[in-house]
């Protein structure tokens, strides 16, 4: 049994996990940096431990401090949330070595699926459709050029250990390949300490569609349907929705089946996401697996009536899933908008500072995951996301209207946000028609002259 969970994260996801623990009668422990002393997750938790100075490397990325904190408060388990150490196999192993349950997959599975080129090979061997590309990691630019000629241009150059758009470049021709490869490799080495790269054929104007899966230690793997994450800027998602307006039922069924196959192939447990890229012709390919809970998990919860954080904790305790595949019958339509403290008109420059006043939207089918409150000082050291507005309605049209109302109702005074920017996207004809691909925001910004 798990009686006490230490949450190795901050912000809205830490608040979300604390609330799930309360629903299960489990005590929660918040860790925090000195910069985060007044954060909402620190105030809501049953216990709290300061683990270092403001910079993440001194606090939320300091494995030894986090493990020591868990031992000092006698926590049975650690939930890593998303970001920070959530996909770090070294941290997962340290938890195991110290007798602490890591609420996530086995570290060996994290290694296998966290390395993008290794994950591609695994999926190829399992028969899961994969974007044409290199089978092995490449390190040398001359070797990479030969692979690029074999695959065909345009080429997507990606870091094997990458994520969040880092270490990723597109080469449209042999003439610019070397420059783009070297830039991506340097960025990968700086961000991840790894210069292993892999190549994929670049699918032009694709959709980004992912499948949420949950798996337990009893061999049960369930697909909970898809989320369309195509609206993104610099590979960072802005809006997610379910179901995807870009795929039909037959494609949806196949994507779910392959997601289950992928998870079973690697012996996966806990929450994970299989990410696909979908061509304009409707062909879908495995892109990567995220071995953690995702920012947008609430979208799936809204259409399936599940609580994925509770399921994560149950799975970590060795319990079977509380639902079967036949129980998952998504209903209605859900949309999420990520609200960031930033200035879209100034190249999305972060806007930290004092929140003088905040009003959050509410009502039937409206959910806001956030760590905001009036008087909160948004730090400058961390990600600029401050809230997620999630709406659910019987149809996509109704969900769009509900999201417009929610965005219109939310008020944040003291810092700049992207609320108006999100409102413009929700009202854009291309998005309304369900035709926004991964290049939509770039085209949208050009039209705005930004």
Report on this model:
With 450 residues, this protein is of the alpha+beta class. It folds into three domains: 4-103, Rossmann fold, CATH 3.40.50; 132-201, ATP-grasp fold, A domain (Dna Ligase, domain 1); 207-448, D-amino Acid Aminotransferase, Chain A, domain 1. The protein is built from 15 helices and 22 strands. It has helices spanning 11-23, 40-44, 63-72, 89-97, 107-114, 116-126, 141-151, 174-192, 249-265, 297-304, 308-316, 396-409, 419-426, 429-432, 440-448, and strands at 4-7, 27-33, 47-52, 77-79, 101-102, 155-159, 168-171, 197-201, 207-215, 221-233, 236-242, 270-278, 284-290, 333-340, 342-343, 349-350, 353-354, 357-359, 366-370, 377-378, 385-393, 411-413. The longest helix has 19 residues, at 174-192. The termini are far apart. The model has no long low-confidence stretch (mean pLDDT 95).
Question: What is the strand and helix layout of this fold?
Answer:
Elements: E1 4-7, H1 11-23, E2 27-33, H2 40-44, E3 47-52, H3 63-72, E4 77-79, H4 89-97, E5 101-102, H5 107-114, H6 116-126, H7 141-151, E6 155-159, E7 168-171, H8 174-192, E8 197-201, E9 207-215, E10 221-233, E11 236-242, H9 249-265, E12 270-278, E13 284-290, H10 297-304, H11 308-316, E14 333-340, E15 342-343, E16 349-350, E17 353-354, E18 357-359, E19 366-370, E20 377-378, E21 385-393, H12 396-409, E22 411-413, H13 419-426, H14 429-432, H15 440-448
Parallel strand pairs: 1-2, 1-4, 2-3, 4-5
Antiparallel strand pairs: 6-7, 6-8, 9-10, 9-12, 10-11, 11-14, 12-13, 14-21, 15-16, 17-20, 18-22, 19-21
Helix pairs in contact: 4-5, 7-8, 12-13
């Amino acid at each position: 049994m798990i009686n006490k969970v230490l949450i190795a994260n901050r912000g809205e996801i830490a608040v979300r996990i604390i609330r799930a623990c309360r629903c299960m009668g489990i005590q929660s422990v918040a860790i925090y940096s000195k910069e985060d002393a007044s954060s909402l997750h620190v105030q809501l938790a049953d216990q709290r431990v300061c683990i270092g100075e403001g910079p993440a490397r001194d606090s939320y990325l300091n494995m030894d401090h986090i493990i020591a904190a868990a031992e000092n408060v006698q926590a049975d388990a650690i939930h890593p949330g998303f970001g920070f150490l959530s996909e770090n196999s070294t941290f997962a192993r340290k938890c195991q070595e110290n007798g602490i349950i890591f609420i996530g997959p086995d570290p060996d599975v994290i290694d296998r699926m966290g390395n993008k080129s290794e994950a591609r090979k695994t999926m190829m061997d399992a028969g899961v459709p994969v974007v044409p590309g290199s089978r092995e990691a490449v390190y040398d630019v001359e070797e990479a050029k030969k692979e690029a000629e074999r695959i065909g241009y345009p080429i997507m150059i990606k870091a094997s250990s990458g994520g969040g758009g880092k270490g990723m470049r597109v080469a449209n021709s042999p003439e610019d390949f070397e420059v783009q490869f070297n830039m991506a490799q340097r960025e990968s080495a700086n961000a991840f300490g790894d210069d292993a790269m892999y190549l994929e054929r670049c699918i032009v104007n694709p959709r980004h569609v992912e499948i949420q899966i949950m798996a337990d230690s009893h061999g049960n793997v369930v697909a909970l349907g898809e989320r369309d994450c195509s609206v993104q800027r610099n590979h960072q998602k802005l809006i997610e929705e379910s179901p995807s307006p870009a795929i039909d039922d037959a494609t949806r069924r196949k994507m779910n089946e392959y997601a289950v196959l992928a998870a079973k192939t690697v012996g996966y447990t806990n929450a994970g996401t299989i990410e696909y890229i979908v061509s304009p012709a409707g062909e879908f390919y495995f892109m990567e697996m995220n071995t953690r809970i995702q920012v947008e998990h609430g979208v799936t919860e809204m259409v399936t009536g599940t609580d994925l954080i509770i399921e994560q904790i149950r799975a970590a305790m060795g319990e079977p899933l509380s639902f079967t595949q036949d129980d998952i019958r998504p209903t209605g339509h859900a949309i999420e908008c990520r609200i960031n403290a930033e200035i879209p008109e100034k190249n999305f420059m972060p806007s930290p500072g004092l929140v003088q006043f905040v009003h959050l939207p509410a009502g039937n089918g409206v959910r806001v995951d956030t760590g905001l409150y009036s008087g909160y000082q948004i730090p400058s050291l961390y990600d600029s996301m401050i809230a997620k507005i999630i709406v659910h309605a019987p149809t996509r049209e109704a969900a769009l209207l509900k999201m417009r109302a929610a965005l219109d109702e939310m008020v944040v005074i003291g810092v700049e946000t992207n609320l108006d920017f999100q409102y413009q996207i929700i009202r854009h004809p291309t998005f309304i028609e369900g035709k926004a691909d991964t290049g939509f925001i770039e085209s949208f910004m050009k039209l705005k002259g930004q």
